[in-house]
């Protein structure tokens, strides 16, 4: 897998308000709130925006490139013990909620399964840092960004990029084609964040079960399901089809 962020920006002002109103009106968001409130009481209107980013990107291989527009909205409460990630994707939006009980050190995860049912899982964790991702990659912030401009991108420029560094942009050491520990030719340093650590596990899974193993891809998608990184968004798109075969 290779990827490139064409352009993007942090959402602020009227654009941010418009995006928030849009996702809050969607049935998936409403259903997520309803299910989370069965276990913990909170006012969704009081959640603050920790991340709001819109971008265009391409992801794929030398043989096929998927161009897409996406946005990532990450909402949290004051002490960040409650978090909701809403990632707009071309085929099916990704939404996940998590709550952290500081007394029990219990992390409860809410995510959608087949037929729009919500799966609830509770795990013991050491701290709230495990709620979502621990470090964000560096991203372009162009105030003049316009959604969907990848359509007019020069194909030759893309082709020359695909043949370059195999690590995903943003400093990744293990996410991307030919990126990771030897014998891979690129990256191989200390993982920069939780998404990068998931890619380490994915490489090891391929080493054990063969490249393009569907269950390895499904495990990778599950590993990054709460991550707010652009790399995680790309992983959800690129590996979804093969993972469905597991």
TrEMBL record:
Please tell me the species this chain comes from.
Cerasibacillus quisquiliarum
What name goes with this protein?
Answer: Phospholipase A2 domain-containing protein
Q: Where in the cell is it found?
A: Secreted
Tagged with keyword Iron-sulfur: no
Q: Which Gene3D superfamilies match?
A: Phospholipase A2 domain (1.20.90.10)
Q: Identify the keywords attached in UniProt to this record, alphabetized.
A: Secreted
**What does the entry give for GO biological process?**
arachidonate secretion; phospholipid metabolic process
Give an example GO cellular component term for this record.
extracellular region
């Amino acid at each position: 897998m290779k990827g490139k962020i064409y352009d993007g920006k942090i959402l602020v002002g009227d654009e941010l308000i418009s995006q928030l109103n849009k996702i809050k009106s969607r049935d998936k968001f409403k259903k997520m709130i309803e299910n989370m409130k069965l276990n913990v009481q909170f006012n969704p209107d009081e959640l603050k925006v920790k991340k709001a980013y819109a971008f265009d990107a391409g992801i794929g291989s030398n043989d096929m490139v998927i161009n897409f527009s996406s946005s990532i909205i990450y909402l949290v409460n004051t002490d960040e013990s409650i978090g909701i990630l809403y990632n707009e994707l071309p085929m099916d939006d990704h939404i996940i909620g998590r709550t952290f009980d500081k007394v029990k050190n219990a992390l409860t995860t809410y995510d959608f399964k087949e037929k729009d049912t919500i799966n609830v899982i509770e795990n013991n964790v050491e701290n709230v840092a495990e709620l979502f991702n621990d470090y964000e990659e560096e991203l372009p912030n162009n105030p003049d960004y316009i959604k969907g401009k990848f359509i007019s991108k020069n194909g030759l420029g893309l082709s020359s990029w695909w043949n370059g560094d195999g690590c995903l942009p943003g400093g990744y050491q293990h996410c991307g084609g030919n990126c990771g520990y030897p014998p891979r030719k690129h990256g191989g340093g200390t993982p920069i964040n939780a998404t990068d650590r998931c890619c380490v596990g994915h490489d090891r899974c391929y080493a054990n079960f063969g490249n393009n193993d569907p269950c390895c891809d499904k495990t990778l998608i599950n590993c990054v399901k709460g991550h707010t990184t652009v790399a995680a968004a790309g992983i959800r798109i690129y590996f979804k089809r093969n993972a469905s075969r597991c």
